[in-house]
């Protein structure tokens, strides 16, 4: 019989595809209500079936898993549904992960806790990494500050140059205020690298310069005494914050009010200068910022405390601790200076 028209042939193929029929293997399907005639040269056994391939034509869930496919390598851990291969020897401590769990070969799966030993990544590990990062940044800040203080104390040409250029003090003060407000009020500034490190570096350099200018008005013995006392106080308060069961993170509002009162007291002390009022003001300031150091440390620790700071805020946490230490140092230095002859 003659071939059907081309358009009719295309319509037939489209209809066969929509009905999910195997056109290549079953060309004699129903064709518009009639039987399509067998074509000259048609071989129903072509292509020949491969060894091991299931007979019966189309099977739901095709392609079926063939015996031994994919080929297992010698020594490879057995997968679910595969027999152990020759030469495979389980490693000590290896437990086959349950079905549906991502493989963790070489690690031991604990069915009681549902975790894989050696691959744990929980909140505690994140918090420990956050604390290490904060104290690393804080250590770098304190070393820069100590370097500036030492330079202004023991290098006389630098001290004389600063005294002859008072505008440097105001420039450093402006840089410190701008960078501090930017990091405190703008979340993107203190979270996105490298912008956060740039702003923190500028702030640290400006603050260290101001501290160097301030300590230049004191003797080296007084400054070193203040540095030693500050180091001892901060170390003791940090250990106390790590060990105590008291939750200082709930005292944020009280500490804020205390700082406001301290600022008003400082303004009043400017109009009534004297040794006694200076000692009272400096002592109150040292006490308030010592509590602030414990408060900020526990915010960083998180855990059982009511409030905690996000691990993304490592710049902000380091900035808080640095400001607490700097203020404690300044108030202790003021106390020492007020008691001198």
Automatic annotation (TrEMBL):
Q: Where would you find this protein in the cell?
A: Membrane
Query: What keywords appear on the UniProt entry?
Result: Membrane, Transmembrane, Transmembrane helix
Residue ranges, compositional bias (Pro residues): 61-101
Transmembrane parts of this sequence: 134-156, 168-185, 197-217, 223-242, 254-272, 278-295, 315-338
**UniProt-listed Pfam families:** Bax1-I (PF01027)
Q: Which GO terms describe its cellular component?
A: membrane
Q: How does it sit in the membrane?
A: Multi-pass membrane protein
Task: Cite the residue spans of the region called Disordered.
Answer: 29-107
This protein's record includes keyword Transmembrane: yes
Q: Which family does it belong to?
A: Belongs to the BI1 family.
Sorted alphabetically, which PANTHER family does this protein's record hold?
Answer: BAX INHIBITOR-RELATED, TRANSMEMBRANE BAX INHIBITOR MOTIF CONTAINING 7
The name under which this protein is listed is: Uncharacterized protein
């Amino acid at each position: 019989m003659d071939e059907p028209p081309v358009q009719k042939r295309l319509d037939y193929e489209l209809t066969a595809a929509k009905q999910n029929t195997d056109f290549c293997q079953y060309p004699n399907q129903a064709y518009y209500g009639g039987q399509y005639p067998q074509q000259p040269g048609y071989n129903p056994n072509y292509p020949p079936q491969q060894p091991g391939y299931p007979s019966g034509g189309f099977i739901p869930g095709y392609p079926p898993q063939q015996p031994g496919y994919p080929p297992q390598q010698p020594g490879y851990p057995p997968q679910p549904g595969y027999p152990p291969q020759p030469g495979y020897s389980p490693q000590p401590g290896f437990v086959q992960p349950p079905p549906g769990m991502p493989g963790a070969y070489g690690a031991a799966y604990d069915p009681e806790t549902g975790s894989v030993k050696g691959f744990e990544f929980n909140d505690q590990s994140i918090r420990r990494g956050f604390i290490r990062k904060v104290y690393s940044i804080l250590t770098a800040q304190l070393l820069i500050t100590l370097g500036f203080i030492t330079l202004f104390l023991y290098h006389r040409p630098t001290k004389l140059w600063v005294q002859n250029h008072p505008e440097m003090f105001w420039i450093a003060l402006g840089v410190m205020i701008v960078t501090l407000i930017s990091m405190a009020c703008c979340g993107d500034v203190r979270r996105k690298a490298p912008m956060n490190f740039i702003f923190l570096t500028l702030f640290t350099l400006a603050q260290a310069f101001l501290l160097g200018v301030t300590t230049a008005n004191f003797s080296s013995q007084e400054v070193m005494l203040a540095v030693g006392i500050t180091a001892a106080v901060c170390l003791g308060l940090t250990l106390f914050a790590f060990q105590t069961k008291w939750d200082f993170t709930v005292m944020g509002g009280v500490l804020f009010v205390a700082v406001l009162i301290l600022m008003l007291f400082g303004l009043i002390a400017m109009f009534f200068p004297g040794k006694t009022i200076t000692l009272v003001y400096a002592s109150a300031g040292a006490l308030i910022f010592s509590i602030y150091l414990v408060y900020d440390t526990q915010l960083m620790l998180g855990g059982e405390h009511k409030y905690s700071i996000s691990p993304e805020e490592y710049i902000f946490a380091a900035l808080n601790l640095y400001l607490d230490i700097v203020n404690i140092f300044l108030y202790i230095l003021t106390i020492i200076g007020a008691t001198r002859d």
